[in-house]
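I'll show an entry:

:::
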Amino acid sequence: MINRNFICIIGGTGHVGAPLGLALSSKGYHVTLVDKNQKNIRKINNGVMPFVEDGCAKLLKKMVYKKKIFATSKLSEVKKSKYIIVCIGTPINKKFRPNLKSFLSFFYDLKKYLNKEHIIIIRSSIYPGVCNKVFNIVKSRCKNISYCPERIAQGKSLTELPKLSQIVSGENRKAIFESEKIFKKISKKIIHTKIVEAELIKLFSNAYRYINFSISNQFYLISKSQGLDFFKIRNIMRDNYSRNIDIPSAGFTAGPCLLKDTMQLSSFNNHKFPLFRSAMSINESLPQFIINKLNEKYNLKKKTVGILGLSFKAENDDIRDSLSIKLLKKLKSKKIKTLQSDEYYKNEENIDKNTLIRKSDIIIIGTPHKAYKNLKIKKKKVLVDIWGLIKK
């Protein structure tokens, strides 16, 4: 029997599903996290967060103790819940096209557990038309489909959920009304849009950020090629000049969202998106650019190169699509001796940051963790700081 106070989140132990589940459980809902990741399931049920997310560790212990949240691999658990929130991934294939086979296949599996009272809320990043495909798959059992995209900065879910406007769209009034009802519990403002608008808002947002970062990275490449300090130039550009104040810093631009969603947008637009191709070319070229510039001055085969920071963003342990990892692999493929360290991502090959600094001839800041800001690095060491993190 369906319980109106029960919410089931598919992909629930991941970076999108778990924080959302905790936020909703803290508002009185009973939340079931359905996932295939057995390791994450065990951790969550033992009150341990499987990844770094501000504020979640303490809240998870509290919600597990109160029996407001639990994780399982059984999809049949959806039968108990009024609301089914889908947070599963939408990967890209090697040709930079959305690979929706597994995403859509999931809804055929879900369909057999559905009835007309269920509310299905899709939160995954998808391109326009995908919600309609889902509707056509499940409509014989359930027509209450809504799309409510997630727009949270990874690591800041509990902080941002109450502050950001939540977009709500749906196939019918019931889906919209019911989705709005639960998001009102955790969001400051609800904005209604058409489904296709909501799908594009999510993709436009990430593509805008990805392209913006590529502009600064291109400026960095130009400055370096001329032997100039991009960060000095950027500071002067912004000094008492409001039109340049928002120019981002340079740095490795990667992760599981920005590149992927820009690819989805390009694919949706029949690959008539030259800005995306240019942005990807710039952002993805940075690891090789660093190696090339070092090769111009040093015999890398006789040097030890240490990389500080492996996650794709600061104060996080997620290495998905990390350019630091890509840089590390490129160096290793060239038989160059490497050392690695990270403040959050755990790996048996990692060493302490101070040991890395002592043993490395060349030190590359791969991720701008706060712990690296005040490091003391001797002048005889070669420092590559694409982020401008360490003040000279």
Summary: The two ends are 64 Å apart (CA to CA). The mean pLDDT is 95. Residues 201-384 form a domain with the Rossmann fold fold (CATH 3.40.50.720). The chain has two domains: 3-193, 201-384.
